[in-house]
Structures are given as C-alpha cells and as structure tokens.
Amino acid sequence: MKPVIRRLASFVGVGVAVAGMSVTGASAAHAEAPTHGCPYPYVCFYLNNSALLAGTPISMFKDVTSGYQAVTPRPHYGVVNTRNDDVVYLRLQDGTSICLPPNTSTVFANAFSVTGIRISSSATC
Fold first, then answer.
1. Residue 89 above 90 pLDDT?
2. Parallel, antiparallel, or unpaired for β 78-81 and 43-46?
C-alpha cells in the first residue's frame, strides 16, 4: 500500500455507529443509522474533511458490480463503507487499487484521486 494513504479505523463518531452494528451484519429489515450522512448500504465519497464532518457526501454507490464504476477523478478526502458484508475496491489514478473492508473508512492525501469503485460481495479483501 502506498505510504501516502492513511487508513483510519474510524472517523469521529464512526466507532460509536460501528459498535452498535450487529456482528452478523444487518438484515433487510434492520436499518442502520447513517454514518456521516452515508446510509447503509452505501459507499460514500467526501471531497474534504469539512464535508465529511458535516455529513455531506459528494457521491454515493451501492451496486455490487463485476467491473469498476467510474468516479469523477478529484482528490477525495475520505471514503466511508457502511456495508456490513461487502468489501470495496478503490482504483487510484495511477492504476493501483486498495481494498476497503466492511464498515471502515479511509482518508487520502491530496495527491491521490480515486477514478473507480467496485463493490464486491466478498466479506474479506
């Protein structure tokens, strides 16, 4: 993994939301509280830290796909995966990708842009 990418176990308040989630995952009838404005089962992108803390995502994805969905390349500050059982692959502008496990977040340095997202039904990276 590139050293400029810092993986965070949680953003402010995410730990509380994650702690309240079921260990076995949410059922269709189980509604999760939105994390930073990102409702279950979405993966949300935030342009900067103030948008993240304000709970204002700039884009949201929820479909499991076999290929990457295009993401407008810009320096995304943070990505939140609210899904309980699905990993998310984030393709970076240099062609590499990182895997974001269920119920986790990541923060990117300004030098990196995400160009694609693939939500996988796999529970592990």
1. yes
2. antiparallel
